[in-house]
User: Fold this.
Amino acid sequence: MTRLLFRAAPLTLAALVMAEPALAQEAAEPAADAVGGGTAYILNTLLFLIGGFLVMWMAAGFAMLEAGLVRSKNTSVQCIKNIGLYSIAGLMFWVVGYSIAYPGFGEDSLGLFGIAGFPYAMQGVGEADLGTGYSVASDWFFQMVFCATTASIVSGTVAERVKIVPFFLFVVVLTAVIYPVVVSWEWGGGYLDSVHGFSDFAGSTLVHSTGGWAALVGALIIGPRLGRYGADGKVNVFPGANIPLATLGTFILWLGWFGFNGASQLAMGTVGDVSDVSKIFVNTNMAAAAGVVVAIVATLVRYKKADVTMALNGALAGLVAITAEPLAPTVGQAIVIGGIGGLLPVIFVPLLDKLKIDDVVGAIPVHLVAGIWGTMIVPWTGDATFGGQAVGVLLTAVWASAASAVVWLALKYTIGVRPSEEEEMNGLDIGETGIEAYPEFARTA
Assistant:
């Protein structure tokens, strides 16, 4: 029986990948495919608003995930960092970020950098431009919450050894300039879109890898937490304070991802569009589910025990991987893409520790590595080339890393980024906020 199962497994996987279920098939076009202009405007705007508040809810997911995975003595700081970065991102994206992300490149422009008028102006009260197909404010709101997500990625990686003020100053630059420039190259019709045909449906590279590069550079420049790595190469484990909270955060992020990917269809005024949104929901969910299962199996095989933190990161890595192209794959292909994504944290978390790169929540494997994987696999199912995808990945890496390094180094050698050793050992909750999340036992945790 066991031999039969092993012989049948490859055939089953092949059938899964090649299968074209009803969800993936093109339905016959109904006679009344599109609604009227005003109704389409309302439905498109509603998609942006629903997607926007779901992605905004991801800020709560990041906050809970990080609060659960840091030590109890640093929990309050992670909470204030997350609500602070979301607010800073909103302000900076209004002042200048959106104008850089969507500058309106001219035909003669190379499309590397541009800027529209700023601060970004909304429509007046009661005004609507049916020519756009959606409310201007709804579009701005949807794009802004993506910007905040990029900053959340950095927060988890450099947790427990960065002061609040320098972190917030880095977020100012990241959300005002670094992230918007990358967005302009693709979604803003710039260099990657017009020259290389780069494709990133909802941001595996533009959002997640950009945040991942900024996090990686920050971790390298700031250094690891005190006591994390011993002189003999030993890795000292710092268990998270609240695994149920981290699990809740992951489920919140999973829910928010339906807005992240689904609303990136950018239209809901036709039968075809709303059907595509539905398919994106299914592919997004199945990729995450595959990431969880693969991560659990991989840790059971490697460590003989299931690791809950790897399972959580497996879900997130599966979500990041499918984000670059959640519409074109069949459900079977989405499962494969997400499953391979879920394997990446199991491989790269220990690798980072061997390199003495301290990533508190595993954001670098989840967002950077899985983001690259998701971007590079797009040609398998979508309309893109491996060469164009590689150019996008490399250009984003160079820009996000170089710009982040300049900012982190400037902060390090001016106001400083780390607390004193005593403050770090006592916990940042005491030194940075004066409010301990768990006052009954935080000082001994």
In short: Confidence is low (pLDDT under 50) at residues 1-32. The radius of gyration is 22 Å. The chain is about 65% helix and 0% strand.
